[in-house]
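Per reviewer request, we include the raw input and output of the structure prediction for the construct analysed in the revised manuscript.
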Amino acid sequence: MIRPIFLLLRKPVTQGATDYLVLVHRFAAEGVIGEMDCVYSSWSSDAPDGFGEDGVVALKRLAPFLKLALKSAALARIAGTLAQTYLGRDPGRRVMSGRIVRGVAEKIGAVLWYSDLHGYTQISDNSPPEQIIPLLNDYAEVVVSAVHGHGGDVLKLVGDGTLAIFPADNREEACRGALAAAVRVRKGVIKLNGKRAATGLPTSQVYLALHVGDVFYGNIGSKDRLDFTIIGPAVNEVSRILAMSRSVEQDVLLSADFADAVGSEMRRRLVSVGRYALRGVAQPLELFTPEPDFEIPQPRRGKELRVPHGRPVPAVVYDRPAGAVRSLRGRSLAGGGEDRNAAQSRRDLPGQDVRPADRGDPGARPAAHRPICSSGWSRGTGARSARRSAW
């Protein structure tokens, strides 16, 4: 009978094992890695006489080499995990692949994400110190998981701020991914605030700026301390856009470049909040915010489309949330009219060169140009499918 302490032996015994050997090789104190302080190995034999003395001696001579191989593999995996955890997923992979030369940077196009917490300074001044780190961890978990879940990479966590990029090989896709992450953050913050408020803990909101531009991406710093990060005018611009979120009382602000890159379907659902002269930015920038109850349409399977001289292609169509329909119905569709949300959000700021939005703002559309109900691309085919109907 096999006692519970030897349950590990049940499988070898049932498979006909006649001998079983366990070897433990511990690391020296300086070789311990966290909780990994040894390597266990187990061996079984189905020979009638088991391993025999010669077999045991051979395994004992082999085990130290196995220990070194396993430790080397574990070290490589741990190093990769640490690099990705502390530097970001893509920077971590680049550093581990040897991209460690100071001053070597690559010019890339990217969607830039910069967010922080509303009222964090006041919260940190008025809350016990032991509550601050859990607060930052809670909101960082919401933001980072949303960014990673939609194809982005978090580059920095600076206090309550988060800097991330969505690589823009396809700018429209990257913009849609960033907007989907923003929607997920908004929902996650609502859920998190409910939990924290129920236990009497302070709550906050996430303010977010999204921008599109070219940046230099690589190693920057001194000989003794390097940082794998991004630099360029677009990085300065996205930080200035975020600083405007409190002034215009919007939790999500998008640059005009982002609005132009997001695609016509999503572009119709963005509202201008005006043109602003931002500190350190040469030209005034027009800023946008999503409509109330903004959602990213989720693809679902549609009917097959017949492509001329081709095979049937499964269509992908998008369901527009009901909230977006209500918001569009509330929009002024008279020619030249300005969206009410944009007018209410515009503020005259001391020391700011504030200009009204251009009359060509997509928030003001003639009734003859109402947006289509939905459209989408069928993945992998390039065939476009669309359903049209006026709101």
